[in-house]
Amino acid sequence: MLATLTLVTSIAPVASASSNWIVRVPTVNPTWIFPFQGGDTYSVANMNYFQQLMYRPLYWISANPAVTINHNLSLAQDPVFSNGNRTVTIALKPSARWSNGEPVQSGDVVFFLNFMAAMPGTWPAYTPPLANGTLLSLVDLTRSIETPNSRTLVFHLGRAVNPRWFVFNQLSQITPLPRAWDRRARP
Predict the structure, then answer these.
(1) What are the 10-residue block averages of pLDDT along the chain, 187 residues in total?
(2) In the β-sheet with 87-91, what is the strand arrangement from edge to edge?
(3) Dihedrals phi, psi of 62, to nearest 5 degrees
(4) Euclidean distance between CA atoms 59 and 162, whole angstroms
(5) Which of 186, 32, 27 is nearest to 122 (CA)?
(6) From the CA atom positions of the chain, what is the Rg in Å?
(7) How far, in Å, CA of 159 to CA of 21, rounded?
(8) Neighbours of 41 (CB within 10 A)
(9) Is the pTM of this model over 0.85?
(10) d(CA 21, CA 163)
């Protein structure tokens, strides 16, 4: 058997320590790359190494040096809480675009939320209601969603929430999906 050695060279600028580049080298092979997955494929490797590189969440949470919203990587402006923390208004950034240049729109977020609502029992991130009836999941907390325009969503919740908890534990799970994938949507 003849072995072939291929040498690949590249001339590229070297990233400096101040360039804020992050390189993630996966230590395992991906087993799932779609944002929704069952418990049998749910893993940190799938979520952090692959999905976040392919699908950007509505709110990107960073932990350096403190847990906070990374405004540069998030697809939406800071949410606005009103009505005693029972109503949450989200404005998508004009710069949020799909790889084909089309803008990320409120319908893309609703498409994801409909997906989420269709599979709460099989999605590992779903938290069922507590024994005392307390609702902890975005699907269960949300009574209705309005889309007053293509860049705005208004969540009407069934109870008041702690804004920090809601953003970091619920809204950060939302990963808009292109509505063009929705084969059941009407034109």
Answers:
(1) 38 52 62 65 64 79 83 94 98 92 93 80 67 74 94 96 92 86 65
(2) 80-82, 87-91, 152-157, 142-149
(3) -115, 155
(4) 16
(5) 32
(6) 19
(7) 40
(8) 14
(9) no
(10) 30
- Residue 108 contacts residue 178 (beta carbons within 8 Å): yes
Distance, CA of 7 to CA of 152 (rounded, Å): 50
Which two tokens mark 31?
A: 């087993």
How far apart are alpha carbons 137 and 129 in whole angstroms? 8
- pLDDT recorded at residue 138: 83
Residue indicated by tokens 């418990």: 39
Judged by DSSP in three states, 62 sits in strand
186, burial (CB in 10 Å: exposed 0-12, middle 13-18, buried 19+): exposed
> What tokens appear for 134 in the block?
């307390």
